[in-house]
């Protein structure tokens, strides 16, 4: 009887030991397999990024006009990361208008076309500084969005003393915007040397009121007339203004 109990205890211990060995081997196998799969995945991503020369981010200084008509500048950063072709936006406490969304989509489309790459395996993140909601809206940053996207795709830094304003069209042409003079003033104060503007907007036409008076007898009759005044923005503000028709013309000024 004692021998049977002894054999039974030995058998139970053997079964437990065998179970521990099997479980340990299984855990080791799964951990090694998971490690291999993870390493292979990381290698593929890093290899794609390296081959396509993608950078993680590019920043450009963009001008805008606030609700009181004053020019301001803010940083726009474009990040390119491995993903699934999504377009993401990081604009804290900022009213994200529908036409701004359209500008971002158009900018991405034009950038892909110019660079000649399909970004379906990458996500693009657009980030604008946290500023008052009344400042940035509409399509006026379209050209800047396109320039920054191209730079991010190419993995290049843009020149920091150059800025641009203008809408972006699907064919890559740059359309007119308002507030050129206050934008130019703000950029000059921020240290920008060259300001690219849409074709025809290097000069501004103003109609200045002028009072003309004529005395007839005891009475003086006055009337207000308006004189056309053409202002050269560059000379007026003290910044170099360059007119550009499309994105391809603008690229060289940013070193792209």
State the CATH architecture of the domain at 57-201 and 238-254. 2-Layer Sandwich
Strand content: 25-35%
User: How are strands sequenced across the largest beta sheet?
Assistant: 1-2-4-3
Helix content: 25-40%
Assigned CATH class of the domain at 57-201 and 238-254: Alpha Beta
Major sheet size, sense and barrel closure: 4 strands, mixed
| Overall residue-averaged pLDDT value | 76
How would you describe the shape? elongated
Topology as H/E string?
A: HEEEHEHEEEHEEEHEH
The CATH topology annotation of the domain at 57-201 and 238-254 reads as Ribosomal Protein S5, domain 2
Q: Note the total helix count.
A: 6
Rg from Cα = 32 Å
Number of strands: 11
Q: Report the end-to-end length measured between terminal Cα atoms.
A: 91 Å
Oligomer: single chain
């Amino acid at each position: 009887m004692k021998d049977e109990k002894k054999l039974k205890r030995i058998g139970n211990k053997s079964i437990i030991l065998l179970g521990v060995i099997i479980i340990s081997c299984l855990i080791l196998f799964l951990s090694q397999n998971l490690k291999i799969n993870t390493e292979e995945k990381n290698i593929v991503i890093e290899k794609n990024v390296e081959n396509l020369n993608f950078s993680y981010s590019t920043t450009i200084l963009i001008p805008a006009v606030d609700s009181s008509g004053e020019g301001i500048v803010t940083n726009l950063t474009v990040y390119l990361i491995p993903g699934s072709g999504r377009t993401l936006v990081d604009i804290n406490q900022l009213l994200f208008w529908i036409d701004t969304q359209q500008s971002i989509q158009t900018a991405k489309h034009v950038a892909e076309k110019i660079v000649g790459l399909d970004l379906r395996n990458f996500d693009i993140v657009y980030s604008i500084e946290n500023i008052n909601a009344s400042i940035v809206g509409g399509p006026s940053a379209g050209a800047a969005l396109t320039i920054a996207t191209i730079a991010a795709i190419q993995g290049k830094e843009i020149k920091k003393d150059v800025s641009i304003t203008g809408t972006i069209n699907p064919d890559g042409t740059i359309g007119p915007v308002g507030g050129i003079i206050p934008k130019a003033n703000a950029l000059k104060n921020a240290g920008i040397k060259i300001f690219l503007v849409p074709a025809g907007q290097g000069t501004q036409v103003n109609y200045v009121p002028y009072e003309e008076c004529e005395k007839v007898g005891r009475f003086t009759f006055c009337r207000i007339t308006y004189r056309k005044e053409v202002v050269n923005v560059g000379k007026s503000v003290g910044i170099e203004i360059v007119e550009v028709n499309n994105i391809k013309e603008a690229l060289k000024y940013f070193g792209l």
